[in-house]
Amino acid sequence: MTAQYFAPVASPQHPRSTFADRHIGPSPDDQSRMLAAIGYSSAEALIGDAVPGAIRTDRPLDLPPALSEPQAIARLREFAARNTVVRSMIGLGYHGTHTPGVILRNVLENPGWYTAYTPYQPEISQGRLEALLNFQTVVSDLTGLPVANASLLDEGTAAAEAMALAHRVSKRKDPGAFLVDADALPQTIEVIRTRAVPLGIEVVTADLSGGLPDGDFFGVLLQYPGASGAVRDLEPVTAAAHERGAQVVVAADLLALTLLRPPGESGADIVVGSSQRFGVPYGFGGPHAGYMAVREGIQRQLPGRLVGVSVDADGATAYRLALQTREQHIRREKATSNICTAQVLLAVMASMYAVYHGPEGLAAIAERTHGHAAAIAEGLRRAGAEVVHASFFDTVLVRVPGRAREILAKALENGRNLRFVDDDHLAIACDETTGADDVAAVLAAFGPAGPAPEPAAQAIPEVLRRESPYLTHPVFHAHRSETAMLRYLRKLQDRDIALDRSMIPLGSCTMKLNATTEMEPITWPEFADIHPFAPVEQVQGYLELIGELETWLAELTGYAKVSVQPNAGSQGELAGLLAIRGYHASRGDQDRTICLIPSSAHGTNAASAVMAGMKVVVVKCDERGNIDLDDLHAKIDKHRAQLSAIMVTYPSTHGVFEETITDVCKSVHDAGGQVYVDGANLNALVGLARPGEFGSDVSHLNLHKTFCIPHGGGGPGVGPVGVREHLAPFLPSHPLRAEAGPAAEPDGAGVGPISAAPWGSAGILPISWAYIAMMGPDGLREATESAILGANYLAARLAPHYPVLYTGRGGLVAHECIADLRKITKDTGITAEDVAKRLIDYGFHAPTLSFPVAGTLMIEPTESEDLAELDRFADAMIEIRREIERVADGTYDRDDNPLKNAPHTAATLVTEDWKHSYTREEAAYPVPALREDKYWPPVRRIDQAYGDRNLVCSCPPPEAFED
Ligand SMILES: *Cc1c(COP(=O)(O)O)cnc(C)c1O
User: Fold this and answer.
1) What is the DSSP string of 582-603?
2) What are phi and psi of 539, to 5 degrees?
3) What does the pLDDT look like over 166-220, one tens digit per residue?
4) Ligand 1 nearest atom to the CA of residue 568, by list position
5) Which residue's C-alpha comes closest to atom 5 of ligand 1?
6) How far apart are the first and last CA of the chain?
7) From the CB of 340, is ligand 1 less than 6 Å away?
């Protein structure tokens, strides 16, 4: 054998040697071909023409040189080594849990689940929709309320959303007051306050153990069990609140609800909380799925995403997102909330935890947890300490006058983090992972104790014991063996199209590679098993990684300071707008409340502005899709004295680099306003331009778009907010972690926390850190250039067949392009939706449908798709255009054709009597390559309206699936 036998197999011209080479799909040869196809000889020339000189930076990225994949892993191991994994018994809404291995590996570590998009195309999303419906059923059953969503971002924001919902339901015109249990989680109280201030709502906290204080409240929030561990009967306060016309919100612990009477049975109107302890690791604060359930009658005002049951074209049961007309992308400033990206992957995990354990399994975990807490309480009493609350579930509050610090330190020596309450009190929280050794270690910290008591004592009053059944649906009983569970996960996964199957060309969503090396660290115990309120000495690795990431993001965007706390783009928007609000207020400009938003903006912008207490004024776009400058100047003049900000997306949501952006920024600044650039489209800017340099004051970025956090089927996300120096004091802070906020918070003008956890979804930040570290400054810029090249290549290939709406200089687009179907629809009756559904028969996820322009498809290929895949997609679109032609020329019937009937299931094709005007072959295999690799949709086109009229949002009975 010759040595050359072992030579690398990459082509000798272009070995893929760096991470950037593998992240970027097209090889240099392919790039040359793509450039030639659009009439360019070099990437520099293309970028020079596509990106306006006025925004180009002259300062290259000052970032460390690219690391290789092994080097990045080694650096991440160093960070990990500087975190200390200590058994945390801190509680406060975050608890230890065992992620079943079958769920860890086959969901959290499985690209089939984590690279999927939000299920807006339900026909290719039946798997995750079923998992989410299971989640809703879990929440609905456990809380005792009929309708639950899937999902909210965390417990704190869920509580804040509940306050807003209660206010809507109250139909009050004035802001009014919201009463909060003093025993609510401290971070929840502060997130509520952050949200209340801009709306003028007064937040009153009070000890509710003795009943309601005097006053007029539109809503009351109770914590169940309380932060102190206390379990109290909800009924007296609920009844008293209802008597005063207030809505009752209960923030409840799902595991406790397996044993405790559910809030729905005590009269609660809204129940919120976190599903973290259902198998989702701490991750230093997130991501975890928050939840919300509501009583009958207010489901149509529920914030967030709701999965519902409907039927497909054959009348078969099928799932899809329900009541989307409440959401920000339709209702804009009138939406029920700004939530877009939620926490789908984590909701899927929590639902599967319930499927895996079933009701008896969950109850056994809860009983064991409770038993250990009861044993600790008994041991403490025997040792002479005072246990403050006789009724508790998992958390014991103990009074140890003057000794709290000393015992805390002792417990830490014994390897346990307890919660410091004050000099005289400690709290100890038990969870699924607690064992007899933990009980012994805790008791030992309090002084010499006798043998630990048996975990048998009971501290739940008989009247509060749960009697109603839950999780009775067969899905929670059918998958108990690991084999059955594995196959259930696989079955659902196979119903969906994720990035592991084909490109997902969704404009505005940047569905790029989520590299395996980026994903690896998130399940390492040193990142996964860290409680968000663990002592700062134990989290040094995390703080260094976060500090480095924030610095890098600041360098990439040209801002002075970045906060990673917001856990979605929408939350970054709110944080940024609150910073603007705080800044104006600090200068005595309280009256600056007008926010200008172009008509093309993403719906979250308007919804966030309203949440920040602003009034939205829409600025028109001209016929080329750009901001109409005449209208802009007219609106600036009209609102000069009240102008707070403009919110613009750059490049625009039309996928175009607007030449006038620097003028827009200047005009707004001249009028005393601030400029918010929505940075969700940063994939077209990284390394080429910095918003902080071309005139913007503040932006949010979407790490789940540009910076490789996978979309998870609809979340998690991270929406860091970056600001120029003058806004830095108004970044988010955190009540339990000063380090997470601005160094110099102005007296009383601080914004407060945007998320429940100090660094938001910290557990997934290693993904974006790894991406930047491995790409390096050159790789990042090349990725941007390649993304712009890919979009222009697709635009060039599609333009002869579909008009490309809106282009910038030289007929070029930025990182996405819009195929305009409107004339085709007028001529042939074939709609953009028909094309989207027909693409499923070709094995593709549709592009973004009818956003930002109705009747169009917006296509964003990203840099990660190679030329073969880009061509496969373009070929499919062109073949579909030919099919449309056959409708136009009468070969196909106008109503009975492969487009109107798409997608086609296997079952439709094997029916005895095929009566259509096209063949089965044309239906299933319109291009030859499909014979080799075919995705079969599990359902036909789904009837959206039917499901909204007949709203069903929990698991349908098995009979629903019978013929
Ligand atoms: C995705 C997106 C958002 C919202 O981000 P989420 O993380 O989904 O909340 C806002 N603006 C634009 C332009 C976007 O593309």
Assistant:
1) HHHHHTT-TT--EEEEETTS-H
2) -125, 25
3) 999 999 999 999 999 999 999 999 999 999 999 999 999 999 999 999 999 999 9
4) 7
5) 569
6) 63
7) yes
Is the pLDDT at 744 greater than 60? The verdict is yes
**Residues contacting residue 799 through CB under 8 Å, at least 6 positions apart:** none
251-266 pLDDT tens trace: 999 999 999 999 999 9
724: confidence class by pLDDT, cuts 50, 70, 90? very high
Cα gap 248→269, rounded to integer Å:
5
CB 69 within 8 Å of CB 19: yes
Ligand 1 atom closest to Cα of 653?
Answer: 13
pLDDT digits (tens, 9 = 90+) for 458-516: 899 999 999 999 999 999 999 999 999 999 999 999 999 999 999 999 999 999 999 99
Distance separating alpha carbons of residues 907 and 841, to the nearest angstrom: 14
Cα(699)–Cα(769) distance, rounded to whole angstroms?
19
929 φ, ψ (degrees, to nearest 5): -60, -20
Structure token pair of residue 764: 């997934």
Name the 3-class secondary structure at 487.
Answer: helix
Question: HSE (CB half, 13 Å, CA atoms) of 476?
Answer: 26
Q: Is 680 in the pocket of ligand 1 (CB under 6 A)?
A: yes
pLDDT value of position 535: 97
Distance from Cα 380 to the centre of ligand 1, integer Å: 50
> Which residue's entry shows tokens 């990284």?
686
pLDDT tens, residue by residue, 657-714: 998 999 999 999 999 999 999 999 999 999 999 999 999 999 999 999 999 999 999 9
Show the domains of the chain with their CATH numbers.
525-772 (3.40.640.10)
Asked if 599 and 625 touch (Cβ cutoff 8 Å), the reply is no
Residue 869, token pair as written in the block: 């895949």
Q: What's the distance, CA 488 to chain centroid? A: 24
Q: How far is the CA of 719 from the centre of ligand 1 (A)?
A: 9
Cα 765 to Cα 774: distance, rounded to the nearest angstrom: 14
Quick check: 276 and 95 in contact, CB under 8 A?
A: yes
DSSP element (H, E) containing 525: helix 525-528
* Helix-, strand-, coil-residue percentages of the chain, each rounded to 5: 45, 15, 45
Angle made by CA atoms 306, 307, 311, in degrees to the nearest 5: 140
> How many whole angstroms separate alpha carbon 909 and alpha carbon 235?
57
Judged against a pLDDT cut of 80, whether residue 326 lies above it is answered with no
- On whether the CB atoms of residues 393 and 372 are closer than 8 A, the answer is no
| Beta-sheet pairing, 219-224 with 643-649 | unpaired
Beta pairing partners, 308: 320
Confidence of residue 5 (pLDDT cuts 50, 70, 90): very low
Which position has the token pair 């953009």?
Answer: 832
Cα distance between residue 919 and residue 915, in whole Å: 9
- From ligand 1's centre to the CA of 688, what distance in Å? 21
